Amino acid sequence: MGFKIPYFNILLPILIAILCCNILVIARPSNAYFKLASNTLFPKLQAERFIKQLNLSPKYSFNHGHEAGVPVDGPRLVEKRFEMSELGDPGTSVENLGHHAGYFRLPHSVDARMFYFFFESRNSKDDPVVIWLTGGPGCSSELALFYENGPFQIASNLSLVWNDFGWDKASNLIYVDQPVGTGFSYTSADDDIRHDENGVSNDLYDFLQEFFKAHPEYAKNDFYITGESYAGHYIPAFASRVHQGNKAKEGAPINLKGFAIGNGLTDPEIQYQAYPDFALDNKVITQSEHDSISKLIPNCVQAIKQCGTAGKDSCMTAYFTCTNIFNKIMEYAGDKNYYDIRKKCEGDLCYDFSNMEKFLNQNTVRQALGVGDIDFVSCSSEVYQAMQMDWMRNLEVGIPALLEDGINMLVYAGEYDLICNWLGNSRWVNAMEWSGQKEFTAAPTTSFSVDGKEAGQLKTHGSLAFLKVHDAGHMVPMDQPKAALEMLKRWTKGTLASKEKTDDISTV
């Protein structure tokens, strides 16, 4: 399972990274250290620590399922309409809402099944179709569904309550568990594990083709791709794949209008350099700590450049080298929550999303969704590990061609997130070379207001928009649900920009 890379080949670049980057060097490395350095263990340890911080405890590190109603000789997509008891007022007649869950048998796989939710709009079936991708890599999109922008949220007694700011109030909303092995998506074949954006985007494109075939009444609607965190990698690759498919007339045309990245990792070379500056600006570290950490940046940049040209082992070296920058900051930051620096983590716990696992593991819920005995893997450490070679890749490179063809992009970021901070995102957006770059960088910053109060600062030109969201961390729809819904509404209607001017968004 995972990478099949010789031990020496992976250990050597790590040892080089140690010498170059002042990672803790000891005269005689212990057995525990060599285990940590091993590619078969270290990324999984990182993932397991991250999963624990969300108070999640998946039973398995990867979803190895069995048949869930998608036989090999049957239809590729098997979907069912489900009903659950929700509390509160959805804003429309529940009987008129279509809530669907299903499995799609991936064609370019041995045995992979992709699970998804589809929620028809509470407003109008003519609303855009919006797909949401959660990052990790390897975390289920149910995290966003129940804690950010889905139709309902989970109460403390495990009942569902309607979300007044669910994105289904402005769109027909799809959540997909991907890459395979995440959430309720599963495979029994190791060859189906995805390691890069080609595999991820091809699976999602194949899913869309079958989805719109099953729901032809939505094929004409505007289509938008959204998501956050590591989806800053998924989203540009997926958007490019859809656009490529449309231009080549590979399948049914998909009416792609835009894509939005929330607090994402897209251009690591630029974003990792912003870590010390953001941490200093927000008093997470001192000036002397900033200066010390900044000495690690040249080696990180060089390693990322090597990853972009040589790939393979050099990408793993870049992962270790650059991750050291962030880890050094967190050594100084102590118990700060790196998803929201206004908050502290208590021990290993930064958020408590455990009710999601409890809810989805109930037999009644599993039967309603049609997943049978398939296990729910909230976050997969094996998927996380499998994508390590992809981590330091620059996904900005495919975006200019999309902008030139009129595909809209929105990059938004909560101002208190450290790990995918607004400063790093602003820098790569401003540095991106496209025909409108000069005009975008010179464009004034305007106020994004909700209910007469400034909710963020916005910069736009042509197909490109950047929004810094006030009073929010990594998960903007969770921290500022009303502002996030307004953002989606206005962006998809082309009315995101405001005329109210404020101080300029700094990019230095």
Can you describe what's shown?
By secondary structure, the chain is an alpha/beta fold. It is 38% helix and 17% strand. The chain is built from 18 helices and 16 strands. It is globular, with a radius of gyration of 22 Å.
Main attributes of the structure:
508 residues; disordered N terminus; glycoprotein; 18 helices; alpha/beta; globular; 16 strands
Give the overall form.
Answer: globular
| Helix-strand category | alpha/beta
Query: Radius of gyration over alpha carbons?
Result: 22 Å
Count of distinct strands? 16
Tell me the span between the first and last alpha carbons. Answer: 43 Å
**Please, what is the average pLDDT?**
87
SS strand fraction: 15-25%
Largest sheet: 11 strands, mixed
Strand order of the largest sheet: 1-3-4-8-5-9-10-13-16-15-14
Number of helices: 18
Binned, the helix content reads: 25-40%
- Low-pLDDT windows of residues: 1-40, 500-504
